[in-house]
Amino acid sequence: MVEIKTDQSLQAMREAGRVVAQGLTAVREAAGIGSSLRELDEVAHEVLRKAGASSPFLHYKPSFAPTPFPAVICASVNDAIVHGIPDDYRLADGDLVSIDFGAKLDGWAGDSAISFIVGTPRPADTKLVETAFAALDAGIAAATVGNRIGDIAHAIGKVCRSAGYGIPEGFGGHGIGRQMHEDPSVPNEGRPGRGMPLRHGMVLAIEPMLIGGGTDRYYEDRDGWTLRTVDGTRAAHAEHTVAITDDGPRILTQL
Fold first, then answer.
1. CA-CA distance, 15 to 170, in Å (whole number)?
2. Residue 25: beta bridge partners?
3. What's domain 7-251's architecture?
4. Alpha carbons 226 and 67: distance in angstroms, whole number
5. Model-level pTM greater than 0.70?
6. What are the boundaries of each domain within the chain?
7. How far apart are alpha carbons 215 and 65 in whole angstroms?
């Protein structure tokens, strides 16, 4: 069931989204050569504490997971696509890092992700990250009243495929509101004009995930959470929480 939010609820979600943006900004600023993923998780945790917000990631346990998630960020490095668990790994020059972060404030959730390169970038990684954000922008642009979920999926997939990248099968965006994951699902590839119509008050987490080697295949790490590319190529992830409104898409997870 898809919940249609009131304008007042959208404003409350904007405040939760602002905390998410603050957290991602703080993590990005703290991420440098020698920073540990666990230290970055603590940076994000401190943002939540100061805002009086909670984490929808911490202790989250979906049906596929063997254990509850132990952190407030997902930190996925290089060949990790999504759901990386922050540990004592210290970032090295040239690492490609994806950080996914959520916040819950006054009963409403926000969810967003960024990818960036630490230190000296490789041209191939720069292109991969830029394409992830271009795919996100295309998906957001298609998130308009009168369009359908398939229009968002098609816009994302067209950008990714045109650049020669893979899209991990079965993973994509989702509805969001009082819970981090709600209906509907938002695939990262699809046919235009298909799927649920978009209405004022729907809120979606739109999140392209790209595999640099061009294959759609991935495997699950031994931790039961992290998804990795099968060929060791790098991956990127970008995400915003977006409200569908009569005035056009409204990004809720930005400063």
1. 30
2. none
3. Alpha-Beta Complex (3.90)
4. 12
5. yes
6. 7-251
7. 24
How do residues 165-203 score in pLDDT, each as one tens digit?
A: 999 999 999 999 999 999 999 999 999 999 999 999 999
| Residues annotated in a binding site for a divalent metal cation | 100, 111, 174, 207, 239
For the chain, strand residue ranges (E) read 73-77, 80-82, 96-105, 108-117, 173-175, 182-186, 203-206, 209-211, 218-220, 227-229, 235-237, 240-243, 250-251
Cis peptide before 184 (omega within 30 of 0): yes
Q: Give the SS3 label for residue 65.
A: coil
Binding site members for substrate: 83, 181
- Determine the Cα–Cα distance for residues 69 and 84; give it in Å rounded to an integer: 10
Q: Which residues are documented as binding site?
A: 83, 100, 111, 174, 181, 207, 239
Radius of gyration of the chain measured on its C-alpha atoms: 17
